[in-house]
Request: fold
Amino acid sequence: MVLETEKKQKKYKVIGTRPIRPDGLDKVTGRARFGADIDLPGMLHGAILRSPHAHAHIVRIDTSKAAALPGVKAVVTNADFPHVPAEELSLGEGAVNLVHLRQNVLAEDKVLYHGHAVAAVAATSAHIATEALRLIDVTYELLEPVLDVRDAMKQGSPILHADLRTRDMGKDGDIPSNIASHLHFELGDADHAFGEADVVIEREFTTRMVHQGYIEPHNATVSWDEDDHLTIWMSTQGAFNVRDQMARLLRLPVHNVRVVPMEIGGGFGGKISVYLPPVGAILSHKTGRPVKLVMNRTEVLEATGPTSGSYIKLKMGATKDGRLIAARGELAYEAGAFPGSPVGAGCMTMLGPYDIANATIDGYDVVVNKPRVAAYRAPGAPISAFACESVVDELAEQLGIDPLQFRLQNASKEGTRQLRGTTFPPIGNVAMIKAALASDHYNAPLEGPNRGRGVANGFWFNAGMQSSLNASVNGDGTVSLIEGNTDIGGTRASIAMQLAETLGIPMEAVRPTVVDTDSVGYNAVTGGSRITFASGWAAYECGMDIRRLMCARAAAIWDLGEDDVEYVDGVIRARKDAAKKFTFAELAGRINSTGAPIIGNASVSPQTVGGAFALHIADVEVDPETGKVQVLRYTAFQDPGTAIHPAYVEGQMQGGASQGIGWALNEEYYYNADGTLANASFLDYRMPTTLDLPMIDAVMVETPNPGHPYGVRGVGEVPIVPPLATIANAVYRATGVRFRDLPISPRRVLKETQGLE
Reply:
């Protein structure tokens, strides 16, 4: 549902409609090709041996028996990789040190988590490859694992990396540490402001690692040819990011690496870093044949980036009239085995929904013996929002103010200075909260015992980054659109719609195709809620380029100056002669007979992303006998700027809410004391199903982003930010107990409400 806002919306012909997605037919008929569908002549099958231990020195690896098994064509270890410099490589969402990336692909001298890759084989069948793994003999010297972020930060804790020093204010520490970096953000004078507060609340929170839960496992098929060219077919969120990682890891020129992105069965940030392609490349180089690797679900959960577990301490103060004036927070995020948690984003987004003048936030990126974390939808923000929105809710209660009114009274708006130093451009936070206050859901009675209603707000800053594309006009009036971004949430449609709007033609006349890294200019990762914004902007610029070329062609046909021709609503016409005009299709039919083909090109790197806000309302019922929390009703409010394809925006809102509900109630990585992951399957790692969720109402409150030609704001990240706190606040009102440790599983509910273990 789209609500009118205080700012009058522009009227569009294509934008705001709900056309059928261009890739829909291929998806529902099974014609779409995913990563695991690749089958090449002479292809070998790869398999990876993984560590059964969380922390151990590798004393010896004997691969001789595996190599001698009939059908095995190659065995590789970390020693087969070239050495790389210790330099940072941007992944779009996050960054990674090349040395750490190499050590994560295949362990070097230590294994650092249960499931860490140790060796790999390539064989003529997947069964032989799996059998060969059993013949690899690895001798380990066990070390004590460190599994909790608070333990890892203590002096005397087992050290994961002897060469790791804490990076603090641009300088490295003197002694080995598990704290990779310390970040500090400061606004105003928090110490002084706390002295003026009438109500001060300080609380501590913990969360567990959770996984993105995409349906399709990681995969890669790699062919290293005789001419030293590498081709990779895989499921990825960023083909160009994979190209860059592979070129740097294997010390190859970028132009020698070609990445073909296949259809993707979900990613949510977890399919940006490389795991399998480097292994496949070395195996292919050794054998001279293409090699295919596909993870099973256990491997995905054990060895590919979940998001951080955390410990957060947050103190906030307000005046008796309900004004937030001070905040101080400490955020410690688990990075997994290698540095790179999203603690920076957690710090910067934590207070985003609020106009608060005095704040100090410290963030710590901490390594532990768990898999290296990866981005997960608004990385870092959901868990910092869980802490912030829980404390805000408690402040409102102590002050006797309605929780939504309290949020409205303190809402960030245009001109509000953020913790990271910049001020907000026009944003829809206030309009969104007002819509929630006036909603049927918030004003409906909630009757019955053990029931509660909770609310929470959330912010994500979104991303711009680089996008490029081109489009060619066909003789039948259609346009072939070539883009380089993996389509995860319907971006083929959202980009095509913006090109169609610019050209004044039906969306169905635009034929979008996602191509490989050799076939289009550089495109940054599909992540950060940037594609509809940035690639959509590129589509607009591309459309304007086509319009200019079409006008020039019409001017040549009519023997007029180019300034004498204009382009209006898909019609090319002479300014001073109404009889001279072409529809887009009419002129397209004459292009090849009157000159060169017409091809529009565009490349952009826009920075004016605006800000994204979401506010959620949840009604829950808690069974006092079993501790089960049932979500009865859920409404998600969000400012998408301009909803290009409203159905896709609703889907993003509902999907983010669903994942956040699972995170709040059931999902967690459960580790035994020795560091082994005990629930590495979808049977034991409990994600919500349709039986666990109500219909999620999605309400869009459009406040167009002035920093985009069509007012777009990214929509895919922010809907996962509020649910953790929304559910926790609702459970409090149902039970009278505030839950500050996630997930709020039946076991924890019974423990906190009835003292049962």
